[in-house]
């Protein structure tokens, strides 16, 4: 038996679902479709019911004593930021497509990215509105609620979508340290655009070593002027 049986159950369900979906979409036989429905109505919903009955009560006590109730919402935000990046990339592909086939492929990629973003955003907002907002309404005064909303809007208004850093203007011995410092100060989903006169590939290796899983690296221009968008997609590891 696995040392982590719940994680193993998750892995099994993901893999079997992916296999059933591929079969249903590629072959689409009656057996394929019946197998997909049996999996989602059986194993998937059964696992969800088991979590609610047995797993979540244990987790509630552990979170109360050792955790943070909104930690899972941070993971939602990381996923939303990653999907926003995918939408941006698909949009750029569609703009740059030079032929009908390229436009069709880019449009399909954009459609899929938007559907994924819509699904996770809808669920995320519903969780906030069904769980958090009733708590806020019940326990904060109207003045406190207005102040909270104003603080949030202030952050939205002042958060830049991207910060530009021209590496050519930074002394070589300070360059990487200043870029990492700027990245670490980005909000989740925030980006910096690095400008250089050569491919900054060695810097990407440093990011992979020091900020693995926390960034995405996207070339915007490839010579003679190089521009790279570096986006914070997860919490910065410490």
Give the topology, please.
Layout: H1 5-26, H2 30-66, H3 71-96, H4 100-139, H5 142-158, E1 162-166, H6 172-184, E2 191-196, H7 201-210, E3 215-222, E4 226-232
Parallel strand pairs: 1-2
Antiparallel strand pairs: 2-4, 3-4
**How many distinct domains?**
3
Structure annotation, total helices = 7
Shape category:
globular
Quantity of strands, as a count: 4
Report what the structure shows.
This protein has helices spanning 5-26, 30-66, 71-96, 100-139, 142-158, 172-184, 201-210; strands spanning 162-166, 191-196, 215-222, 226-232. With 238 residues, it is an alpha+beta fold. The protein has three domains: 1-67; 69-158; 161-232, Translation Initiation Factor IF3. A four-stranded mixed beta sheet has the order 1-2-4-3, with helices on one face. Helix 6 links the parallel strand 1 (162-166) and strand 2. Helix 1 packs antiparallel against helix 2 and helix 3 packs antiparallel against helix 4 (100-139). The longest helix has 40 residues, at 100-139. It starts with a helix and ends in a 6-residue tail after the last strand.
């Amino acid at each position: 038996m696995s040392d982590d049986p719940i994680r193993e159950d998750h892995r099994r369900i993901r893999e079997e679902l992916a296999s059933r979906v591929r079969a249903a979409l590629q072959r689409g036989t009656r057996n394929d479709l019946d197998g997909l429905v049996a999996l989602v109505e059986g194993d998937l919903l059964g696992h969800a019911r088991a979590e609610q009955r047995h797993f979540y009560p244990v987790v509630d006590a552990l979170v109360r004593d050792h955790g943070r109730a909104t930690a899972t919402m941070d993971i939602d935000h990381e996923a939303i930021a990653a999907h926003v990046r995918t939408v941006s990339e698909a949009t750029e592909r569609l703009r740059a497509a030079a032929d009908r086939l390229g436009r069709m492929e880019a449009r399909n990629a954009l459609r899929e990215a938007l559907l994924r973003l819509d699904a996770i955003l809808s669920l995320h907002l519903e969780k906030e509105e069904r769980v958090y907002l009733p708590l806020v309404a019940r326990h904060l005064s109207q003045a406190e609620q207005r102040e909270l909303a104003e603080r949030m809007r202030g952050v939205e208004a002042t958060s830049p979508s991207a910060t530009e850093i021209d590496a050519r203007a930074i002394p070589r011995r300070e360059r990487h340290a200043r870029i990492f410092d700027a990245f670490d100060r980005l909000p989740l989903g925030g980006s910096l655009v690095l400008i250089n006169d050569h491919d900054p590939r060695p810097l990407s290796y440093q990011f992979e070593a020091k900020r693995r899983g926390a960034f995405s690296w996207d070339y915007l221009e490839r010579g003679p002027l190089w521009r790279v968008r570096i986006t914070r997609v997860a919490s910065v590891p410490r």
